Amino acid sequence: MARGFGEEVQLAPLVESLKTGMVQADRWLALYEGDWGRSLSPLYAAASL
Q: Which of 11, 26, 34, 46 could crosslink 22 through cysteines, CB 3.0-4.6 Å?
């Protein structure tokens, strides 16, 4: 039941994790091993608020 307060924006990462079985650390590790070429530099940009 939607309350109309926009909670879905905050809950979207949780819902995605439940669907895929992956948490943010898993996604970052996959990027580190793949697209980021084992470099941590892109992680700083990805993790910035």
A: 26
